[in-house]
């Protein structure tokens, strides 16, 4: 038996250009005991299990499997079985970095890990552990017991529809009381209210997945799994498509709720590998969509600035058949201007922080303070609590690994980064009047060197780019008239080009994600139903609101109207 006893849990050390160390733990919650397996990016889970069984002398590898878990303060929060064909190295390269301040050694493990277990067992055999884990396991059982024993006492109700006196005060007091008792979920009929605790609770592990399967809504305490389970079995029973809408203010936990729903919806497919593959592709695309579609706002350091709809398709027998991702209302105005103390999209800062010297030279990268599109808000770092700080150099490596898993080759990634560099440099393009004559307000490009670099990055002719920035063409019959832009028109055209480039790039990335999901589908025609999960931002009211805020709030007004009508009809 080969075991190491070093403090760090999830740091992965690269041994060579293509070899990594995968740490395999023998227990879900043991904090410092593991065996190290040398592996490549292409090494599959079955290979890791075989190597671990050999080192630990466990016997036939066919009796064991690898699981990915996330724990917080020594409590198991999430767990997922790896399929034999999945690649653990690539998975662990996408794990978010846990800051040292977020790891409380006195309270136990915080972070992601792999552990080996016997198949079809929720808790691994005790013979696999180098030390007893009874203390941690008892903590999980204690939390589970208190979760199941939620009772109606002290005017606390798990369903707000059961309140004897319905008014704003009693609703808020009930939700507050439940939250203070670590009950973050509350029903309003068939609608679930979730209060973001800003910490992990151990209520998403396999015990809860199995516990909520095929249970009537309200039979068990409120939980996000209950909503997913109800949608799944209603779809199978009634043969009708279902939809789950996630809405709330920025920072309310919509993205994490979306991930939990997708995890449970794919876990409900009892046919194994296919569901896991779809889930891994969707969640693997998460860091990519997050980098390109999320940004720091005044209220949230990682705010989604687009709406996302994920449709999970099922066969008639309940087996996952594939998925489709659609995006709505990407906030393009953020590309060219941001409010004070807000930032542009994460990917720009990742690119500037994580690129090596060769990449910086090839892409003509500058410092964030040197870009007009980044310096307007005077905000370049993610402030806040220490555990919220982001290592943007690490995030850039994580982004590249995620892009590789979705299907972006190294060459394609370089082309994407070239477009990003061009978008940033467009903001540095300046104009000047052509002549000294007062009546001539037409302009030409002042910063020719910048335009030359942009044309090189975009692989377009410099003259074509200059003409597009300074002229417009109007066709009348067989004649084409060329008109020069004035200063304000040229600036507006420049900004429109930057927004168009970024928007088209984001659309193409979503298209590539869907192509990867299509590759997971069976070639037979889809016969069955689907469950859609809509993750959309809540009401927005800024100091300066634009057409995008109008669209967002208009959509939310319709959602709010539907919720009200649904609840009233349900109660009648």
Structural overview:
ATP binds at residues 248-255. It comes from Mytilus galloprovincialis (Mediterranean mussel). Keywords: Actin-binding, ATP-binding, Coiled coil, Cytoplasm, Motor protein, Myosin, Nucleotide-binding. The chain has 572 residues and is an alpha+beta fold. The termini are far apart. The protein has 4 domains: 19-136, Ubiquitin-like (UB roll) (Roll), CATH 3.10.20; 150-236, no CATH class; 241-430 and 488-548, Kinesin, CATH 3.40.850.10; 431-487, no CATH class. The chain contains 17 helices and 17 strands. A 5-stranded mixed beta sheet has the order 2-1-5-3-4, with helices on both faces. Helices cover 41% and strands 18% of the residues. It is globular and about 80 Å long.
């Amino acid at each position: 038996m080969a075991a190491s006893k070093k403090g760090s849990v999830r740091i992965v050390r690269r041994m060579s250009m293509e070899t990594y160390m995968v740490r395999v733990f023998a227990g879900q919650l043991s904090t410092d005991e593991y065996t190290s397996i040398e592996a490549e990016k292409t090494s599959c889970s079955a290979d890791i299990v075989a190597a671990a069984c050999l080192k630990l002398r466990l016997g036939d590898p066919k009796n064991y499997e690898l699981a990915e878990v996330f724990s917080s303060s020594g409590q198991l929060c999430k767990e997922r079985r790896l399929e034999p064909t999945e690649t653990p190295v690539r998975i662990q390269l996408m794990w978010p970095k846990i800051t040292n301040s977020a790891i409380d050694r006195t309270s136990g493990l915080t972070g992601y890990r792999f552990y080996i277990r016997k198949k079809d067992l929720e808790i691994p055999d005790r013979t696999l552990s180098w030390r007893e884990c009874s203390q941690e396991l008892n903590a999980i059982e204690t939390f589970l017991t208190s979760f199941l024993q939620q009772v109606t006492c002290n005017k606390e109700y798990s369903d707000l529809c059961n309140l004897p006196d319905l008014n704003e005060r009693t609703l808020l007091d009930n939700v507050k009381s439940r939250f203070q008792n670590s009950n973050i979920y509350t029903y309003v009929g068939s609608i679930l209210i979730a209060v973001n605790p800003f910490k992990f609770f151990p209520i998403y592990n396999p015990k809860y997945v199995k516990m909520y399967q095929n249970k009537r809504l309200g039979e068990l305490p409120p939980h996000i799994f209950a909503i997913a389970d109800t949608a799944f079995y209603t779809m199978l029973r009634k043969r009708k498509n279902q939809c789950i809408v996630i809405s709330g203010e920025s920072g309310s936990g919509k993205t994490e709720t979306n991930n939990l729903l997708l995890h449970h919806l794919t876990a409900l497919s009892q046919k194994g590998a296919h569901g896991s593959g779809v889930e891994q592709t969707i969640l693997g695309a998460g860091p990519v969509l997050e980098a390109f579609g999320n940004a720091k706002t005044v209220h949230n350091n990682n705010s989604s600035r687009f709406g996302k709809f994920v449709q999970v398709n099922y066969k008639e027998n309940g087996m996952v058949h594939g998925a489709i991702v659609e995006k709505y209302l990407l906030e393009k105005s953020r590309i060219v201007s941001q409010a004070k103390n807000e930032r542009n999209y994460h990917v720009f800062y990742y690119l500037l922080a994580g690129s090596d010297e060769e990449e910086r030279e090839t892409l003509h990268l500058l410092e964030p303070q040197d870009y007009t599109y980044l310096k307007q808000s005077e905000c370049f770092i993610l402030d806040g609590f220490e555990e919220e700080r982001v290592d943007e150099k690490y995030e850039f490596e994580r982004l590249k690994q995620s892009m590789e898993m979705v299907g972006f080759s190294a060459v394609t990634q370089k082309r994407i980064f070239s477009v990003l560099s061009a978008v940033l440099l467009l903001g540095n393009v300046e104009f000047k009047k052509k002549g000294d004559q007062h009546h001539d307000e037409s302009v030409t490009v002042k910063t020719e060197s910048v335009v030359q670099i942009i044309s090189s990055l975009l692989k377009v002719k410099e003259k074509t780019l200059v003409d597009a920035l300074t002229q417009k063409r109007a066709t009348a019959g067989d004649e084409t008239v060329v008109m020069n832009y004035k200063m304000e028109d040229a600036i507006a055209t420049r900004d429109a080009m930057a927004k168009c480039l970024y928007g088209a790039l984001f659309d193409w990335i979503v298209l590539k994600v869907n192509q990867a999901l299509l590759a997971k589908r069976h070639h037979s025609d889809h016969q069955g139903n689907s469950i859609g999960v809509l993750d959309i931002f809540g009401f927005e009211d800024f100091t300066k609101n634009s057409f995008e805020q109008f669209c967002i709030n208009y959509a939310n007004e319709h959602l709010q109207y539907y919720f009200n009508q649904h609840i009233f009809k349900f109660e009648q």
